[in-house]
Sequence to fold (418 residues):
Amino acid sequence: MTDDSEVREAVARAHRREWAVVLAATVRLVRDLDLAEECAQDAYAHALRTWAVNGVPAKPGAWLTTVARNRAKDVLRRESVLRSALPLLVTDDVVPGPEDRPEGSVFDDDRLRLIFTCCHPALSRDAQVALTLRLVCGLSTTEVARAFLVQETAMAARITRAKKKISGARIPYRVPSSADLPERVAAVMEVVHLVFTTGHAAPVGKDLVREDLVDGAIHLARTLHQLLPDNTDITGLLALMLLTDARRDSRLSADGRLVLLAEQDRTRWDVDLIREGTTLLTEALRRGRPTKYSVQAAIAAVHTEAATWEDTDWVEVVGLYEVLVRLWPSPVVELNRAVAIGFRDGPEAGLAALAPLLEEPALGTYAYLSAARADFLRRLGRWAQAATSYEEALALTDNDVERDFLARRLEEVTLHLG
Fold:
């Protein structure tokens, strides 16, 4: 028998790495999102029991996929709809049927089929992103809600409605044809970007970074770039991801504590990713107009070009945020611009730039607003106000690494209160 803790960790690891593959392969079989999700969840529950007795299989993903698909077949047989509802049902677990390769399709990948299905234009953009995060990436409804800055109950209802829309509209489970791909890819890029962002700064849990989400998003962005190399939006998106992820190894100390950009050891930044990202950014800016992705990549590039924190060109950073606000107006972009102003012009200016955002409903549960305000107040020596803002940020934060950082900052400013 295998130790229970080892089994739980193996199942959790398989969920992070294999969920999308297991679910997507099951959806291809049954063409029913709810049934496929139920069978995939059953497979993971079965793994907890079986692996404890028989050990963890050499290929957990393949094991889980087989169990999920077999359970789905059993359900279909019991309901006596196998023949009538799925006349072209794929029965071979390895070789997909011809209906899964529509004429003109440029690639064949179950995960991408699932993404394009979830990002179908019949769905609203918010529904597309939410459904893909839930189904493709395996995020909990709580995590998806936090990514959208909405209540969990509202997000659960949104996901349910999106599933019903796919079923009711009989949205096909396939990658678009070459002719339709460009107009469909914008929704997918937004999904991939949000998956990356969620992985880069995990909203909940013990890990600051969810490497499975970050790596998966980069993989999907690379795939899209290979398919549509002339799409400057995709090129800019991939550049943004690489330049951002280049700092991954420097964001935590040896004892697992958060390290801010100002204090990071820049010798630990991945020079290969920086080089590749910079090349892609140059290509994107040379070949097309600035986009929200390429401008964000340019901001990341300014940071990678600075040898030290003190060398950061904050004038350029603020200027780029001004461009980004026009291209992509959103409260979060406004917040980032305000923070940059605070580093360019000082904490008083930063507080003034933040002030209008305190009344922004979309940022009411956004911990980084309170954290940014707390930092400016701390730098000004306004200890009581800083402590209040740190407490507010702590109350809104569910990531253990970020909570530890905020708690230590709160303790630091509290000491000054006497």
User: Anything to note?
Assistant: The two ends are 56 Å apart (CA to CA). DSSP finds 19 helices and two strands in the chain.
